[in-house]
TrEMBL record:
Recorded coiled-coil stretches: none
Region (Disordered): 267-287
HPt domain location: 1-102
Record Gene3D superfamilies: Histidine kinase CheA-like, homodimeric domain, Histidine kinase CheA-like, P2 response regulator-binding domain, Histidine kinase-like ATPase, C-terminal domain, HPT domain, SH3 Domains
Keywords on record: ATP-binding, Chemotaxis, Kinase, Nucleotide-binding, Phosphoprotein, Transferase, Two-component regulatory system
UniProt GO molecular function: ATP binding; phosphorelay sensor kinase activity
Residues carrying Phosphohistidine: 45
GO cellular component: cytoplasm
EC number from the UniProt entry: 2.7.13.3
Catalytic activity: ATP + protein L-histidine = ADP + protein N-phospho-L-histidine
Name of the protein in its database record: Chemotaxis protein CheA
Source organism of the structure: Halonatronomonas betaini
Cell wall biogenesis/degradation is among the record's keywords: no
């Protein structure tokens, strides 16, 4: 099978699965929303079509069964309740599993027959509850009669569809096409009938439907094809078109007169209510957005080329020739380079909603499993982030959200005792602040106790009681990120054995990000992840340490300053300064990097250059030899042999062609 088409199938399947997930959730909130039902139906239909085209029979069959159920739901033939919603989700999980099977092994390994049997039983039982209404409607609403031989009922939704699609000069026809009795290819002929009709008009409803024609055996397709058609053709012209099809024996066409008064009234009410709800409701039916798919490796190559261009631009600027023409050319090169950089960056950026939208379903399932009521509120899903960062972010967010549901949000009876709403709330929020993206995971649960965390850390030998006495609340809260740390007495199936928060921190830091925590007892907890917009190119402060040039990313810097030696104080053997009533430890950069120099000589200087850097929740003053300039740098990996050099995260090329190492200041103690 062609790898290109297979990858396209995977990409589109993932999109449709996400659309189905979001819309089934929306349907659970508002079972009467026909727009959402139609969106689910279209996504299932498209997924079925792709699976059939690729020859994945089990996936085709499963989506066809789901599509049938959805068709009954949208035609009010099947009752939609919690059990039915759970069944739709179960079917979606099987679809996801089959797609993953194909990704991993190229084969459909997941068994679906048990689910199909259960779905058929459910459809039969749920349909029985509305059977009486269906029978009544068959006699009361027989709007369309085709030559007195066939009755096709039109629902109000289908009448509305006619209103939406009928032009002023169009006709509405009820059509009956009869095939030859000895026709050998009834399904093909029936397909051609509907195809021809669709080419000259708009088919509102048909029996059999196109899907039934495509998926049923030829023996199960009868001789008669009935449909309601909107067309600009006169009846005689339409008849001629249909008689041109091989094996068509007879064609009967009637003009259809319909009463649209109730439909127009309902449509006006719906329009009025939708205007009111648009501004206040976050629910929306989700459609697959049109996109142009580009292999990420091609974007990486393009980004590398832009990086090389930036490096050479910087080198040219470093020549500093006193020549007007030269300077004009450099100025133009600078503008073009920056525009190209901006365009490439925009191509790499994707909305964070791509991963945010996976979580409502997870929260729903966890809430049911733990017998809690939890509402997940998502804000800033349109915020864009580099694709390479997005791909790594899903697992840390999953862990934070699962912890919030399992350990943060209290049980319903406990929340009642605390005079809290029974329904807990979790806020998942993303927004841009300068050159950083901030992601917040906040719950209104029981909060974290810093003293309890500290006691646990002492028990586990992570810290000492003496050290804890000098810590503020935020520093105590950060024990939760220590490897293997947990305050939970029992192992939870939901959140595991407390081995995850250190991994969350490690992943965030591997993305050049930081994670911070705030918590208040019985009020809740908020985790804030700060990330750079991109990992490829960033603004940096160039500094000199022991006659070598180093780069410090600006997103890690709080401020720069020069101090005099008399501002240095000693606290337990550590140099500190007091800056705006905050005590900040002072570290010598050369010592941190284990450079072969005489340490402590900075105290003999008249002025000491210091860069205040952010290390998690703390600020640290880094003593360097000289502050140089700020410039845009292209981040290059050190390669697999130098990956774990302490306090070094990469390298860049500066104006004179030399290599400058990039400082990783996050773990400076």
């Amino acid at each position: 099978m062609d790898e290109q088409y297979l990858q396209m199938f995977f990409d589109e399947s993932d999109e449709y699965i996400q659309v189905l997930n979001e819309n089934i959730l929306a349907l659970e909130q508002d079972p009467d929303d026909k727009d959402v039902i139609n969106s689910i139906f279209r996504a299932a239909h498209s997924l079925k079509g792709m699976a059939a085209t690729m020859g994945f029979d089990r996936l085709t069959s499963l989506t066809h069964k789901l599509e049938n159920a959805l068709d009954k739901i949208r035609n009010d033939e099947l009752k939609l309740d919690t059990e039915m919603i759970d069944s739709l989700f179960a079917g979606l999980d099987l679809i996801t599993s089959i797609v993953n099977d194909i990704k991993d092994s190229g084969e459909e390994l997941t068994e679906v027959q048990d689910y199909v049997d259960e779905l058929n039983e459910m459809i039969a039982s749920h349909s029985g509850e509305v059977a009486v209404d269906s029978v009544i409607s068959n006699t009361d609403n027989a709007d369309v009669s085709v030559a007195n031989d066939v009755v096709l009922d039109l629902s109000n939704d289908e009448k509305e569809e006619i209103l939406d699609n009928k032009g002023e000069t169009d006709y509405i026809y009820g059509v009956l096409v009869e095939l030859e009795e000895d026709s050998m290819l009834k399904s093909v002929r029936a397909y051609m009938v509907l195809k021809t009709a669709a080419e000259v008009g708009y088919i509102v409803k048909s029996s059999p439907t196109r899907d039934e024609i495509e998926n049923e055996d030829d023996d199960n397709i009868g001789r008669e094809i009935k449909f309601v058609l909107i067309s600009h053709l006169a009846a005689e012209e339409l008849e001629n078109e249909l008689f041109d099809i091989i094996d068509v024996q007879d064609v009967k066409i009637d003009n259809v007169e319909l009463d649209f008064s109730e439909v127009k009234k309902n449509k006006a009410e719906k329009s009025s209510s939708s205007k009111k709800s648009k501004s206040s409701s976050n629910k929306t039916n989700v459609e697959v957005s049109p996109t142009v798919r580009v292999d990420i490796s091609k974007l990486d190559t393009l980004m590398n080329m832009v990086g090389e261009l930036l490096i050479n631009k910087t080198r040219l600027e470093g020549l500093k020739l006193e020549h007007d023409t030269y300077n004009d050319i450099i100025g133009q090169l600078d503008r073009v380079t920056m525009e190209l950089h901006h365009v490439v960056m925009q191509i790499r950026m994707v909305p964070i909603g791509g991963i945010f939208n996976r979580f409502p379903r997870m929260i729903r399932d966890l809430s049911k499993e733990l017998d809690k009521e939890v509402d997940l509120i998502i804000e800033g899903a349109e915020t864009e982030l580099d694709r390479s960062i997005i791909d790594e972010l899903a697992d840390p967010l999953v862990h934070l959200l699962r912890n919030a549901v399992d350990h943060g949000i209290e049980q319903k009876d406990v929340r009642k005792e605390k005079d809290k709403p029974v329904e807990g709330k979790i806020l998942l929020k993303a927004y841009q602040k300068g050159s950083e993206i901030l992601i917040e995971v906040e719950d209104d649960g029981k909060g974290l106790d810093g003293d309890k965390l500290a006691e646990k850390a002492i028990e586990k030998g992570i810290t000492t009681r003496e050290d804890v006495e000098n810590m503020d609340e935020r520093e105590k809260l950060h024990f939760i990120f220590a490897p293997g740390f947990s305050t939970t007495e029992e192992v939870s199936d939901v959140s595991g054995r407390g081995v995850g928060m250190d991994v969350v921190k490690s992943v965030v830091e591997s993305l050049d990000g930081q994670i911070m925590i705030e918590s208040e007892k019985d009020i809740g907890t908020r985790f804030t992840i700060s990330l750079p917009l991109t990992l490829a190119i960033t603004q940096a402060l160039m500094v000199k340490i022991d006659d070598e040039i180093f780069a410090i990313p600006l997103n890690a810097i709080s401020e720069t300053l020069t101090i005099t030696p008399d501002r240095l104080k000693q606290v337990r053997g550590q140099d500190v300064i007091v800056l705006r009533d905050k005590t900040i430890p002072i570290k010598e950069a050369a010592r941190q990097l284990n450079l072969d120099v005489e340490y402590g000589k900075y105290k003999e200087l008249d002025e000491i250059p210091v860069v205040i850097v952010k290390t998690g929740e703390r600020l640290v003053g880094l003593v360097i030899d000289e502050l140089l300039n700020q410039q845009e740098i292209v981040i290059k990996s050190l390669g697999k042999y130098l990956l774990n050099v302490e306090h070094i995260s990469g390298a860049t090329i500066v104006g004179d062609g030399d290599v400058a190492l990039i400082l990783d200041v996050r773990n400076i103690a």
